[in-house]
Fold this protein.
Amino acid sequence: MLQVKVGTKLLGDGQPNYLIGEIGINHNGDLDIARKLIDLAAKNGFDAVKFQKRTVDVVYSPEELARPRESPFGATNGDLKRGLEFGEKEYAVIDQYCRKVGIAWFASCWDEGSVDFIERFNPPVYKVASASLTDDHLLKHTRATGKPIMLSTGMSTFGQVDHAVDVLGKENLIVMHTTSTYPADYAELNLRVIPAFRERYEVLVGYSGHESGIASSVAAVALGACVVERHITLDRAMWGSDHAASLGPGGMEHLARDIRLVETALGSNVKTLLDREIPILKKLRRVGA
């Protein structure tokens, strides 16, 4: 039986699915939007919300930051990246607010300094973004916190994931199947990788979806995902690069409902005669001569 403890919750075999609302940068640099998204996640029974943390001048080159890009924050890509980045003041508010509403929060950290920053808030788990899967220094730095790790695997081959798992080790590791297209086409999702990951690494496996709709995320649970992460938004038509690949309030409600229904329906691997079937058996069963 494979299980990992994340904060106060046990994840894995025999446990309810751990449902994550990825706020990411969908707060659009606005704490009020972040609080509303936290409220939505808590209201719909999500276990956690996740943010993204970057040291902008470390993660991006000067050339990339200087690239022209119009946004509400200015005329360059650097203006956009800095405008979307919360600092200590904002995360202190987020930490306090999540405690108030009773939901966990954590972050995917794109550089070592961001890990050190988020560690001040004692998150229950860290997420390694798909873009960081081949960054051995960051993997080792994140592992040194001693926290469980969710490893996102978009844009990667089995060989690259093999290496990342070797670097991180399998203890307290959850490998997250991901397709890094936004929104992802259903033909790109390749959900059969979920049981393949479990067999290959003998660790817990989750699913981080960027598709429209919820059917494939629910199917991921039936295929063995013990964690489901979806981007969330107040409105899929809002300004920003990730909103179109996110779930709005209705989608969040339906996802949580359908995952819990599928968990109930999966039952066990033992075929039995149910008490409620006995009257039907007596009425319909034909015994051969």
Summary: The two ends are 45 Å apart (CA to CA). The domain at 7-284 is CATH 3.20.20.70 (TIM Barrel). The mean pLDDT is 97.
